[in-house]
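Before we proceed, please read the two lines closing this message. Tell me what the token row says about the fold.
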Amino acid sequence: MKKQDSFGVFDIPLSCSVFLEPALQKYSKTICPITKETKKFIHEWNKALIDILKSGKYSMFIGNVGNKIISQTLKSDKFPSKCVENAKNVPLHSLHYAIRFSESVNFISKKLNSGMTVNFVELGCGFSPLSGILQSEYKLETVNYIDLPEITEVYSLAAEKVYGHCPTAISWENAKKLATEKKLNTIIAMGVLPYMAIEEQVSRLKFINSYFQNFLLEIKYNNNAESAGQNVFDLKQLQKLKMDVENAQTLETTMIKNSMRYLHKFICALPDKKYFLVNDRSLFLSR
């Protein structure tokens, strides 16, 4: 869309969920494997989301982009997959959605398979079905999620429609308190930190590093100041964080390892999009 105000608060979260389903199918050979049960849940989740949002109750939060997604999906359930195949920028963004989601599920699965008890919070859930899937499919007892009140309201309605229960909506301050009391030990934040100022990101990253046993976090990295976007880390800023990250002696080592892994998946899926190499890159920090 040409006009910035054509995007409502719900538009990007809605696209992340609606385009996730066909993206997981399109990029299945590139991303971490997703079970049939999880794919079915996502399908039902998107049906519930569209049904809730078509009512008009939340129209103040939906812009032109969101309204088009809703109306066209109601006309044809093939609309999302067509967008993922052909629409401008959608194949690119939907690949990000698929990688984020599959990496998150894989991260939690590994923790559970190791015998660990996972007390979970998702920072910036949007309309991603991740928290709902972890509660209903993976049977996590403690599942919390953080976002804007209007987002979490719709999230709870969708969860009730799909599986008759929902995670607990909390604030970042609540999450900090629970983490210091050792009632939360695992946090995932995908696609939310880069919307915050660098100072706020650094504050949250340092707290997470100190109080969460497990984390999977996405930040944006670019060591070229001329092409770097807003709220994007460079190497010096990353080194100052001094975070204890998985399978590496230094943050720089992990940055290189995770960046290469992510870029490999991206380029295998979209080999004609090599301009991504010179722009802001998603970097996953994990422990």
About this structure: The chain has a mean pLDDT of 87. The first strand starts at residue 119 and ends at 123.
